[in-house]
């Protein structure tokens, strides 16, 4: 899943590429913070709670390769995609091994045999009945990345306008 936007710069800033790159890097850092904040607001906390749950796993980073600047916001939790999109009924069940940690945390089971048995039953049920992605009036989480990105977009645009504007003003004053 990938969301993005393109920015067209109408003023010729090739005269001072270092200043432009610096402004874009600052804007990318602010964008990473904005995305992490807005996506985190609509992400469910998850079974692990505030320390290890889905909400706590949202991260952002800014990567710089030469003149290319990339902002990445995501999660390392394998179950984020099913939470984001849900699962249609009638599909093959998910692998029960993917549910083992969740079953142990959710139901407080420490016996590996019981955990495996329950995870298998839950996986089979998910295959038959599917899962529901969170609805508008239920706990947040449906399309958490899409809705977080949409909420942050006006702020991201203002951030780039402000930082690129500062570069333009700096170049004009010199």
Topology, please?
Blueprint: H1 17-41, H2 49-52, E1 59-65, E2 68-74, H3 80-85, H4 100-107, H5 112-129, H6 144-173
Antiparallel strand pairs: 1-2
Outline of the structure:
The chain is mainly α. Helix content is 52%, strand content 8%.
User: How is the biggest beta sheet arranged?
Assistant: 2 strands, antiparallel
Oligomer: single chain
Give the terminus-to-terminus CA distance: 43 Å
H/E order of the elements? Answer: HHEEHHHH
Q: What is the percent of helical residues?
A: 40-55%
What structural class do helix, strand and pairing data support? Answer: mainly alpha
Based on CA atoms alone, the radius of gyration comes out at 21 Å
* Gross geometry: elongated
Total tally of structural domains: 2
Arithmetic mean pLDDT = 80
Low-confidence stretches: 134-141
Spatially, the strands of the biggest sheet line up as: 1-2
Strand content: 5-15%
Figure out the total of helices: 6
Please provide the count of β strands: 2
Main features:
single chain, 174 residues, mainly alpha, two-stranded antiparallel ribbon, 6 helices, elongated
């Amino acid at each position: 899943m990938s969301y993005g936007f393109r920015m067209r710069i109408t003023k010729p800033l090739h005269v001072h590429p270092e200043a432009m790159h610096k402004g874009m890097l600052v804007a990318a850092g602010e964008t990473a913070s904005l995305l992490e904040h807005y996506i985190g607001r609509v992400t469910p906390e998850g079974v692990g709670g505030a320390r290890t749950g889905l909400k706590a796993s949202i991260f952002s980073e800014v990567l710089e390769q030469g003149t290319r600047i990339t902002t990445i916001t995501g999660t390392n939790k394998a179950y984020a995609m099913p939470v984001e999109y849900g699962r249609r009924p009638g599909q093959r069940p998910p692998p029960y091994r993917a549910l083992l940690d969740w079953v142990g945390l959710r139901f407080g089971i420490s016996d590996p045999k019981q955990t495996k048995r329950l995870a298998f039953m839950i996986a089979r049920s998910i295959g038959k009945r599917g899962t529901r992605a969170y609805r508008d009036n239920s706990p947040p989480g449906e399309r958490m990345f899409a809705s977080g990105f949409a909420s942050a977009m006006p702020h991201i645009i203002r951030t780039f306008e402000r930082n690129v504007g500062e570069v333009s003003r700096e170049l004009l004053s010199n």
